[in-house]
Amino acid sequence: MYSLVAWEGDKKTYQLLRKLYKKAQTQEEKVRFLGALSNFQDKKLLSQSLQFVLSKEVRSQNLFVPVSKMVVNPYGKELIWPWIKKNWRKIIAKFGIGNPLLNKTIGTMSAESDIKKEQEIKRFFKKNQIPGTEMKLAQTLERIRINSNFLETVRQEFAA
Fold first, then answer.
1. Which of 58, 78, 96, 152 has its Cβ near the most Cβ atoms within 10 Å?
2. How far apart, in whole angstroms, are the C-alpha atoms of residue 86 and residue 129?
3. pLDDT digits over 71-93, tens only?
């Protein structure tokens, strides 16, 4: 329900959901609010949500919730990769090396379908290697190539 409210919400709705997050008594409630904060259509509000998850107010194990929700939000999807690149060191600091949630964060990029993005992601992680993420990175890059090939095939079929 919170996500539906967020979808049609504005800055006032956003502020209310943040306030409710802070007052939430259980982690389950907090997770619901974090998910809702990723479901706005306003990109400025979505960017605020991404910055919020790096704050001390959000537990490290909950950081992945808004990222995973935003990657399927058509208004937020394009914000994820630039945010990961810009905040990679902060994300590592929040999770800690060896945390499986780092792999999940890398895996969110598998929703991409742009082969140029695949190359960019590959270059970035070549420079910013983290032990234990090699397999997930390879799988993510493979999924991007599959998505790109599928999209190209569909475009060719419908263009004919």
1. 58
2. 15
3. 999 999 999 999 999 999 999 98
